[in-house]
Structures are given as structure tokens and as C-alpha cells.
């Protein structure tokens, strides 16, 4: 992709005229990417190159989705089916009051709107007391954890901003707002939809509790049917409203008159239920009258008897008459005893005379007996007097009771007249009430035959599995979405890649030939200058050998001995490559000297483990001889001139004739004169050295140096008169480089078994 992208760019600053004898002819093309890299391979390479990014996005995205899915509260959906009846089931003709609904699309949509209306949802809330359910009433829920509340964007707004322009609400309005929020929660969890072209409406409800979901869905269906019946009954009530009101009035009137009859009857002791039956008072009066007559008769008999006994007791006959009247056995016995004593006295008088003691004794007995008879007669008379008094008292008591009964009977007779009046009123009211009630029942019979225009086809059962969230679907969608996002990010990253990924790209963009790539050494491999000696058969050492071979082919006659290593910006590995290349040449038996020309950032002596007492600055300043400034690398025999510690400006020292003479002298004494140059875009000394060197190797850091920066640095070298022999890519990740579809892709990495890294 990057190769095709650069093919359209014009080749600027093409130094074709400056190529040496080993330069490749511009008429020969080695661009194999168009034929070798198909679209599938390019896409595969892109995925391989950015597999870490894509994998990270997939893992993070899918992990977050899994975490969110398992933290989401599961919702259970219960569904009930209601069929709107399209057949008329009216038994009696009562169309003047109520008419059947003929279902059509509009009617079904209207019924759906009713089921989704806030008024209907409010009935459900009231019936099931959902105001007390924390699932729907947010004010009853416990506060969320602190970190969850911190993630809510609404909590980022200051409270003072939220209260700006707020209207104060009364407690009733606040309560109404709470009810509205609960109703809205219920509506949000409710789904009402027609089932295709049928007359069936599906009502489903989502809840955290499966039983609650089933209960609410079934309650909605029941309330819907009740609501239909209510509407029908309201129509009937409007037609019979006056009759119902009048019937209620008559019912109250009949009840009032009936209660008045019972109350009047109770107050006046009227316990009979018909005219032919006697009252309790009449029965008592008859009994008292009979008892009074009997008592009066007995009293008269006692008085007569007392009068007769008293008269007889005062008569000449005295006790004998009383005995005869009363028939008392005691009196009669005493009387017989008296007669016997009188006979005995008469006999004694005739026999003994008047003074005889026996006679006197008999006379004394007679007197005692007569006194006893008189005493007994007095007792009898006294008893008769008592009986007369008792008879009089009983007679008077019965007379008083009889008078009271007669007075009470008179009161009851008068009360009966009022009772009859009340009974007639009650009968009239009851008759009117029953008449209107019969009429009302006739109309109600027609209304009762009505049925709702819908019926429940299938009640909502308790769902066993949650409907939301669908964790498998969420994970699958997250996997697909995160994978797509990862690929898009990889493509954006590829498009936004500002660096060169292959010398082939640089060659297509600039026309400068490629000198190969320099693999990145392992993390703990040490410095490149040491690694090339320690690992002579490593990929890094092979890249230095390849560079040496390329330079030999570019200079077969050996005239170009001064080689400058340059780059655009610091950090591209220019000094490390120069030191490693110089050691490689020295190790191959060539007389090689390495000169540190970066007088600002001196680092070559540290890479090689040498001192920086005397160096290039002292030689150019004339304070030290060349032989004294040259140091020998004990491992390879490489001669090295460090940067030194000069006080003159670097551009003055490197641009002087002394520098030119020094290079001429070194080119005579050595086969390879390797110069380490400062970056050309950072300081100006790099351009001076490019003009002095026979060949310039331009270093570009793989994938990191911006394309514009690298091309600008190359332009500076060319415009300064430098002979750019080729471009060398440093610090190449061979594993990632092998994933690109370039002609040199897989170099070193694809043949890593040949190297001992």
C-alpha cells in the first residue's frame, strides 16, 4: 500500500547524473510489488503488521462488552396476546345505546394507542402499587457506588446550574411528578404491537423479576377488557341515568317509610301483623275483666256471709244459729256438748237440788263451754271480716289493672290508625319502587348481555430465561465491532504512517538506490560497534558486510575512499552504523580509519571504549600531530580519530583547508576513510562534509523518520554537492519488516536460520 502510494509522487532532486559506475541504469526496473503482492496478501500483511493493535482493540472491546453484559441487570419479558373480536355477539337489540366495534387497521392502532397511553399505565401503577416498587420508582433505589456516579455525565454539571430557572413545586405537584416518572418507566418497559394482519395485539412487558413481568402483562390485559366493559356500561348509564336516579330516590323513600312503620309499631307495642288478630293489650284486658268479675262476686259473697253470721250471732239462737249457718263441725260438737250438759244439770237439779256440788260443777262446765263457743264464733266472724277485706283489696287491684289496660288499649287503637296510614304510604312507595325496579332490570338485562370487544388469547406465562441482555449476541457484536474497529485503526495507522518502511519505497520516491537494511540488534546485545565483533555471523554483521560489498561494487577501481555517513535528524543510528561498518572493514583486512566529525555530540570514542584526549579538533587547530590523535582499536586494528575538545566553531574547523588536506592525506594512507557526520537538518557541518567526501551513505531510521524529513535531508546533501551512493535503513525490525509486501520483505528474518544472533 505504501509502495503504491509513493509511486504517484514525482521524483524530486534525482541525482542520476552523480551516480558512480556501479549505479543501476534507470531503464531497468526491479519493482516487483505490483505483480507479486496481490490485494489479499497486502491485506494479510496489514493485519499481520498491526495484529497487536487489532488484538488489543478486540480484547479490550470484547472485554468491556463482556463486563458490561454481565453487569447489566437481566430483564425478563412476558407477553400476553389479546384478540380484538370482529364478530357481533349481541343477543338483544340495544343498538340505540351501544354499538359494536368493527376492527380495522385504524381501530387496531387506536387500541394500541390506548394500551400505550399514560392514563392506562397509571391504572396499572395504581392497581399493582408500583409506586412502592424500587424498580420503577427511582427515589426508592439505593444510591449507586461512587465510581458509577462519577461516570454519569449528569453528575458533572454543578447543582447551581441545574437549579437555574427552576420553578418551585408544591408537595402535590412533586408527588404527581413522581407518579409521572413511574408511569414513564412502566411505558418504557411496555411493548404493544399488532401481530401482522391479524386482529391480535401482543402486549409484552420487561422486568427484572420474571413473576412481576408476567403479573404486569396479565394485569394490562385484564384492565384492558375491564376498560372496554366500562365504556359500554357508561354508554348504557347515560341512557338510563334518569331512571337510575329516580329508582334511587324511590328506594330511599320506600326504605324510609318502611323504617317509619317498624319504628312506629315498636314504639307503640303493635306486634300484630293483620287486623283480625288481637293485640297483646286486648288479650290482657279480657283476662283482667274476667278476673275482676270473679273477684267482685267473691267479695259480695264474703260480705253477705259476714253479715248473716253477725246477725245470727246477735240473735236469740246465737251460736246455734251460727253453727247451723256456717255448718262448722267444731261449733256443732260444742253445741251438742252444751245440750248434754244442760240435760245433766236438769237431772241433777231434779235429783239433788240447786245447792248440790255436782250441780254446781255441771253448771260451771256449762258456763265454760258456752264461753268457748262464743269465743269460737267470734273467731269465725273475725275470719269472715278478713276475707271480706281481702276480697275488696283484690277487687280494687284488678279494677286498677283493668282501667290501665283499657287506657292502653285506647292508646293502641289510636296508634293503629297512624300505623295504617304509614303502612299505606310504605306500600305505595314499595309498589312504585318495584315497578321502576322491574323496568330497570329489563334494561339491565339487555346491558348485561354485552361482552367486551376483545378477549385474551394467551396469558403471559412466567419467563424462564432473560430476554435482555443477550450476552452471546452482545459478545458476538462486540467481537465483530471491535475487530472492525481494530482493522479500521490499523488502516488509519497505516495511512498515517509517516515513515519509510522499505528502501524500495525511498528509491521509488527519490530515485536513490538502496544499500540494504540494518537489523535492530537485540535489546541486551550491547552497542552495535561491539555487537558486530561479538556476533560476526549475526544478521547485523551480515548487513555491514552487505553494505561493504555494495560500496565495493559501486567503486570497482577504488578511487572513492572517503565515505561519509549522514542523516537528516539525530537518533537515526548514523554513528552506530559508521562505527560498526568501520570495524567490519578493518576486520576484513582493509586499512580503515574512523573519524568522528560530530564535534558537537561526541560519542564514537564511548562506543569503541577509547579516550577523547586528543582528536580532530586538535589536529585541525594544529595543536596536535595526526599520529598523536590516531588511536588503534585493539579488537580489529581499526584506527580512530575522536572528536577532541576544540574551541573553534565546528563549521569553521570542518570547512577549513586543513580539513581538506587531512582527508587527502588519509585517503592516501588508508583504503577506507569513514566519516561520522552530524545531521544535515540540525547543523550545517553535515553539508560541508558531504562536499568533501567521495561518497555519502544516507541513513534513514526504519519507520520512524518522517518521509518529508528524510527527503529534505537528502535534498540538503545533494544540493551541497554530496555524492549519495545510496540509502541505508537502520534499526529495522526484521519481523515486522517481513510482514510488508516489498521486494526485500523477509530479508534476514526469512532466512534467520543462517544467522547466529
TrEMBL record:
The keyword Plastid does not apply. It comes from the Bacteria. It comes from Azospirillum humicireducens. This is non-specific protein-tyrosine kinase. GO terms for molecular function: protein tyrosine kinase activity. One of its GO terms (cellular component) is plasma membrane. Keywords: ATP-binding, Cell inner membrane, Cell membrane, Coiled coil, Kinase, Membrane, Nucleotide-binding, Plasmid, Transferase, Transmembrane, Transmembrane helix, Tyrosine-protein kinase. The keyword Ribosomal protein does not apply. Belongs to the CpsD/CapB family. Residues 1-27 are annotated as: Disordered. Residues 45-128 form the Polysaccharide chain length determinant N-terminal domain. It is an enzyme of class 2 (transferase). It catalyses: L-tyrosyl-[protein] + ATP = O-phospho-L-tyrosyl-[protein] + ADP + H(+). It is found in: Cell inner membrane. Its EC number is 2.7.10.2.
